[in-house]
Amino acid sequence: MKRKFWVAILLIGMLCQLTACGSRQESVNDTPTMAPSSEPTATNAPTPSPSPEPTVTNAPTPSPSPEPTATNAPTPSPSPEPTATSTPTPSPSPEPTATNAPTPSPSPKPTATSTPTPSPSPMATPAPVQEAMRDITTMELVRDMGIGINLGNTFESCGSWINSSKVKNYETGWGSPVITEKMIAGYKEAGFGVLRIPVAWSNMMLEDYTIHPDYLARVKEVVTWAIDNDLYVILNIHWDSGWWTNFPTDKEECMYKYVRIWTQLSEEFGEFSDYLMFEALNEEGCWDSVWNRWGGTTGKAEAYGLLNEINQTFVDTVRASGGNNAKRHLLIAGYATDIDLTCDAMFELPEDPAGRIAVSVHYYTPSTFCILEQDADWGKAKADWGSASDVQELTRNMDKLKTTFIDKGIPVIIGEYGVAKKNKTEEVVRLFLSSVCEEAYERQICPVLWDVTSNFYNRSKCEMYDKQLQKELLSVLE
Question: Is residue 124 part of a domain?
Answer without folding.
Answer: no
